[in-house]
Amino acid sequence: MKRWKKWITTLVLGTSLVTLPVGMAAAASAVETVLYGAAAAALIKQQLVKMDTQMQPQMLAQTQAKTGVADNYEYEQRLDRIADNLVRTGMIKRNYDVYANPSKDLNAFETVGGVISVNQGMMDTLNDDELAFTLCHEMQHGERHHAINGVMKSIGVSVAVDLAFGGHAEMLDVLLGGIVINYIDNEMVTMNQEKEADAYGFEVMKNTPYNVGGAPSSMQFVYEKYGDLYQEGFKRVISPNNHPQMTKRIEKLGRRMTRWSGNHVQVGGDMVYVNAQPVVSPAPYGDYSRRRRAFLVAGNLSRVTHTIYGEAQDDKKIRTTPVASGKVKGMDLTGNDWQILQNGNEISVQGQHIMDCAPGDDGAAIVHNLNQALRAKPAMLSDKEIQKLDKKWKSQYGYKAPAKKDKARTEKTEGHS
Q1: What whole-number distance in Å separates Cα of residue 386 and Cα of residue 390?
Q2: Is residue 158 part of a domain?
Q3: pTM strictly above 0.85
Q4: Parallel, antiparallel, or unpaired: how do β-strands 115-119 and 97-101 relate?
Q5: Which of 147, 154, 173, 172 is nearest to 94 (CA)?
Q6: Domain count of the chain?
Q7: Beta partners for 343?
Q8: Out of 139-153, 185-199, 201-215, which region has the weakest mean confidence (pLDDT)?
Q9: What is the pLDDT of residues 110-130, one digit of tens each?
Q10: Domain containing 54: what range?
Q11: 75 within domain boundaries
Q12: What is the pLDDT of residues 238-268, one digit of tens each?
């Protein structure tokens, strides 16, 4: 077996998976060695698929034993309620076990068996709209079986051979289970898988009652705590990037929100724009920065313009024709009959909640700006203008590295996948 392991670790597994007899001779050519490793990988993947689809209770128990479970009934109820709303879209095809763990870091993960765990740190700091996108994202990892691929990537070929053909077939579930649980601490999710989960997660999000602005705002909050979570230069060689640059993820999610609005609503820096007119730069409030609140306000405004105009086909063309000509829900569009109201601290448009004014927000000015912007000629800022505003915001208010004493804790947390 040592001879086999030496051969296997020096070869690249570049062939398709081939099923070979388990009782192969221990001595063989290099080509046979590659085929032997391929057969081992095929058997491991087959077993992982079984664990993913048929052993959910066992995987849930093992995962909870690893992470612990937050003793909080409200967390449980909140996660169940949000998950149920996502399932109602009809876009979630498998069952998930969702629970909160007691870690205070900002993280969440999905693993083999359709198990999703959200850290207490996320439960305590994200609102329901932001948490809904977190679950949308993690469920898309599950829908596309990313965890299986990640575990396969993390298992060396020689380890796969030892597992598959080590003479302990009855122990394979136990051995693989241990590897899967260890995978939680050392995720091997690729950058493309993260991009897929963001993209398809947003597709689910926009079919729910939740504020689509919760997608970029959730990532914005993680960025404000941990930065881009992205290595540059030589560090990238030592520690390859599995997650896309956080600011790029925020930018792409912001664009998806804008497209959903019919390209009428944008966020540049910490300012919300409607038809290229500045509407509001919300005051910071608690854990909510101006920019984080701006995404949430923009998401609510996007629902208003989406209801009227529908979603734009691309990032450039603005939707100007209403989905129903003449009137939309009793609104005479030809007369610009916008119902923009302030009731106490709440501002609404067409009965849709837009924002609750916090100390520092000028409600009267926001209502005035909305009246001007919604009645303006349809327009949007260019990508270059938005990027310039984002760059200016980042230079003034962007992530600042923590003190050395906090560096180890920050590096340990890789952001929610």
Answers
A1: 6
A2: yes
A3: no
A4: parallel
A5: 147
A6: 1
A7: 346
A8: 185-199
A9: 988 899 999 999 999 999 999
A10: 2-67+148-179
A11: no
A12: 344 456 789 999 999 999 999 999 999 999 9
**Residues sharing a CB contact under 8 Å with residue 124, sequence separation 6 or more, in sequence order:** none
- 408 in a domain, yes or no? no
Euclidean distance between CA atoms 36 and 32, whole angstroms: 6
Whether residue 15 is contained in a domain is answered as yes
**Alpha-carbon span 227 to 294, nearest angstrom:** 19
- Alpha carbon distances (Å) from 3 to 9, 25, 26, 39, 159: 10, 12, 8, 18, 14
Three-state secondary structure along the chain?
CHHHHHHHHCCCCCCCCCCCCCCCCCCCCHHHHHHHHHHHHHHHHHHHHHHHHHCHHHHHHHHHHHHCCCCCHHHHHHHHHHHHHHHCCCCCCCCCEEEEECCCCCCEEEECCCEEEEEHHHHHHCCHHHHHHHHHHHHHHHHCCHHHHHHHHHCCHHHHHHHHHCCCHHHHHHHHHHHHHHHCCCCCCCHHHHHHHHHHHHHHHCCCCCCCCHHHHHHHHHHHHHCCCCCCCHHHHHCCCCCCCHHHHHHHHHHHHHHHCCCCEEEECCEEEECCEEEECCCCECCECHHHHHHHHHHHHHHHHHHHHCCCCCCCCCCCCCCCCCEECCEEHHHCCCCEEEECCEEEECCEEEEECCCCCCHHHHHHHHHHHHCCCCCCCCHHHHHHHHHHHHHHHCCCCCCHHHHHHHHHCCCCC
Amino acid symbol at 110: E
